[in-house]
Structures are given as structure tokens and as C-alpha cells.
Amino acid sequence: MSSTLGNTEPSRPPLVVGATLLGLAIGTVFTVSLDGPFVFDDASAIVENRSIRQLWPLVGDADHPAPLTPSAGTPVYARPLVNLTFAANYYVGGLDPRGYRAVNVMIHFLAALCVWSTLARTLRLGYFEGRYDDVADGLSLACAAVWALHPLVTESVAYVTQRTESLMGLCYFATLYSALRYWSTTPSRTSWLVMSTVACSAGMLCKEMIASAPAMVLLFERLFVRKSIREELRESWRLYVGLSLSWVVAAAIKMSGQETPMAGFDLGVDAHVWWMTQAKVFFMYLKLVVWPSPLLIHYDIPYLTTVTQAWPWLLAAAAYAGIAVWSLWRRPALGYTMVWVVAALSPTLLIPLVGETVAERRMYVPLAAIVPLLVVAGYRLLMLQEAALSRRGLAASAILLIAVCGWLSADRLSAYRSELALWQDTATHRPNDPLARANTGISLTQEGRVAEALPHFQRWVELEPTKHWAHYNLARAFEATRQFAKAITEYREAVRLEPDHAASHYNLARLLEDSNEWLWAIKHYRGAIDAQPDFVDAHTNLGFLLQRHGDLNVAIEHFSTAAQLQTNLNTQANLTLALMQTDRRVETITAAEKSIALAEAAGRTDVATELRKILLGLRREK
Model pTM? Predict the structure, then answer.
């Protein structure tokens, strides 16, 4: 083994003490989020996810999804290990969000332990020439605590579906930690090789962002452990054969047809547009590391479509790349951190994810390298001062930084107690974000606060005037606040923009019928039926309207269709009463008998009695 490994064995504080302190800090801060509801993608990933309803069998098919074969289009598609953990959650606690969030917090705690242990061993490597041996445990514990309580990681923990990110992150850190143990341990090297291999492959079953892990382990060993590539390959070739198996796992997932939803170059965003935009996004991420405000559930970042728009960010990206390459030779710790950030973000920097240009959770793994670099640099700066701080002073500074991060995270986590709070916060900071306006309005409407939702829907229409959903939701808000003329105008626009939207036709028809514009109402009821032939209420309302205006035979056809589509007392009684106005006595008697049976089954004896009188009269006439 190379002497650059140094003394990597941890000393003080003991593992139990450090883990307890770290656990208390994480638990205290993240308890704030435990009582929140499921939000956003949690609906499809958990609440509506049939594949987590049982733990066995593990593998199913499209008609019978199972834990390791989730349904296509869900956030856990191509992420079977995360889906399996959701199935375990469901088995224990059903759909209680607290259990899912508690598991997320535990995963985050384990990830923080991995970060701490990895840093403690790294600071004792021979590369650092003993500079941090005496403070490695405390300094690495401070780094891990700052990372674990940094506001940027809150989304990965509080937003249940983003277990894909935190569990992948845990596997990423465990891969590097196990590699460190493999390099420095003689008796049980094989065990650590296996653990590193398993961790990396497991991470690939959580999220594809771990694809860079083998390369980052390789670079770490070359920079901080070995003196040459030749020595590295001679000593660790077995490790890299094992780590490369994770790419085989990725290929197997791809070949099975499973892909990340809404990701790819065929979804309407040109590659060069995405890459130019991500140049700007990359520096936005770095800004949020040092100034994490505002943190939002959605960022509306317009695409940069031309070099004229993107050149400042492209120039900054080129400068970043140049500094990173230079640092790999002159300042390896800085260079490695810079490469780590890009490598961890590379899947989303390179491959378009339509509708999600920016996401805080993507910084979960990159932040684990940035925070230690900044904290250790701060420590060295303080120690270089003429009046160097005492150990107590350094500890107090670290505690203050940790406390500030914890306070900021607790404040951010409080927003996860309701979906409305998250969207209101986004709309406040991004008033021109259409999605923020839309979801704020929808959330307010669901709480019965339609008058408050109305301005958000109006702003949504202003921002996206060609989107039929914007006009449809505004129309519903106008209708709920009894502004019927405005509602009709918005429904008309929704129909113009999306002629095949049945609900827009139907709601417009209702209001037109109330306004006595019955010819237009008939047209739009028919439009609703054309768009959705099994629309029972549209058939029923059209039947009544036609019946009132003398077209009884066509009305009966619609009543009959409604009764066939949805057999119940109301639809059958409508048909019976319409047939009674004709001379089609046999059909009327048959319909009346069915209505009586349905009334008795529903416990409506009064209706059944009246129908029997009618039926008796029909039979006498016959």
C-alpha cells in the first residue's frame, strides 16, 4: 500500500458520541416536516401507486405492477429500489405520510454519517501531511452537520418522492467510504470491495445520477492516495471492475425499456438550448450554496435560445472548467471538489428534463463536497490569523454556523406542512411563474377559497394566454363566484383552444342553457359527447334540453344511452318518464319495471309506489 494513505483510523470524538450529536441535530430540525401531507408527485409515486400495495411478488408486469416493476410514467419508474422501500412503508403504515417522512429522515441521517466518516478518513490521508490529524474528527463532524442541516437538502428529505435523491446519495457516499476502507484495510479488503460494489449498483437502482461515482472514486484515489495511474490500477483494479458493474445495471434497466419520465432529447427542447440554459442554472446552484434564498418548489427559468443570451454564462462555465483543470494539478482538493460538482450534476446538465430546468434536490450530492471545502478553508483561514482562535473559539464558530443552517432549514421545512404554503411561497418570489400561479389557485380552490384563487388564475391566463387549462380554471373560478358572463367568455376560449376537452364544452353548455341560449347549449352538449361519448351527465342534460324543446325522440335516445352507461334510479327514471310521453307502451313498461327494481334496491319505497301506479295504468291501457 502507498504511504500516502497515512493514518486513516478515526480517534475522537467516539463514533457513538458523534453519531448521537448528529442524530439529535437532524432529528430536531427535520421533525418540523413529519406532520405534512403528501405533495405533488407523491400522489402518483405513493397514493395512486398500485405497485407498492404488496411486498410479494417482487416482480410483476404492466397489468400487475410490483415493487421492483413500478408502472411506467411514475416518478419511481426505472427506480425499483426506491419503490421497494415505499412498498415496505405501505406494508407497515399504509398511507400515513409520517412513516414515509421518518424513513427519509433516517436515510438522511445515515448519509450524514457516511459523509462524516469519509471526511474524517480523508483528512488523515498522508496527502495532507498530518495537518488535520488532531482535528479531523471534530472538523469532519462539523462539515457533516453543516451539510445535513443546509437548507438546500430540505427538499430531498421533506418531499417524500425525492427519496430517489437521498437514497441514491447515501449509496454514492457509501461507495466512496467503502473504497477508502478498501485502500486502507488489509485483513478484510474483500469485504469493503463487495460493499463498495453493492452500494454503487444499489444507487443505480435509485437514480441514474450515481453514474459518475466510479469515475469519482478513480479520481479520488489518483489525487489523494496513489502516486500514479499505474500504481492505482495495479492496487485497485478489482475495485473498478466491481464498480463498473453499476453501469451494467444501468444498461439492463435501459434495455428493459424503463426510462426516466420526461427526460430525453426528443421532447421538444434542443440539446444546445438545454446546455446553454444549464450553464446559467449551474451558477444559480452555486449561489444557493452560499445564499440559500429564496428556496422554491419550482423555478421558472426561461430557456436561453441564442448565444447572445447565453454568452456570460458560457464564458463563466469555460472559466470554471479552466480553473478546475488547473486545480487538479496545483490544488487537488479544490480541483476534485469542482469536478465532483459537475460530475454529480452531469446527467441533468446534459440530458433535458422538460418542465424541470432547476431542482434544489440535485445539489444533495454536490453539496457534500462543497461544504467541506468551504468549512476546511474557513478553518485554515482562522488558524492563519495572527491571533488564532482557541479550540473553544473554533468550536463556537462551528456551532454558530450549524445553528444558522438548522434555523434556516427549519423555517423552510415549515412550508412543507401544506401544498398551498409551498406554492404561495413560490408565487410570492416568482410572480411571473405560470405553474406557481396555477397551483396556488388550484390549492386555494380545493380549500374553498375561490375568491382568493381568482387573481392567481387571472394572472395565469395573462402569462399563458394560449393554454386552455388556464382559461378553464379561470372560468370555473368566475362561475363559483357567480360571474357567469365572464365564465362563459373563458369557457368559450378554452373550447377554442382545445376543442376536444369535454368538461369545457359541458360547463359552457350548462351556463348557456341557464342564459336561455339553448341552441348554443345543445351544440356544446353535443361537443362534450363527441369528445367523451360516455359522458353520462352530458347525455342527460342534453336529453332534458331536447325534451323541453320538442325533440322527444332524440331526447329518449340520450336518456337511453345514459341509462346504459350508468344504470341507476335517476338515469332509468329519466328514460321512463320520457317514454311515458310517447305511444311506445311496451318500451315504457319495460323501463318502468327496471325503475321499480332500482327504486326498491335503493330503499326508495315512495318512488317505487308511484312507479307501480304508473305501471298499473299503462298495463290497463294496453
Answer: 0.89
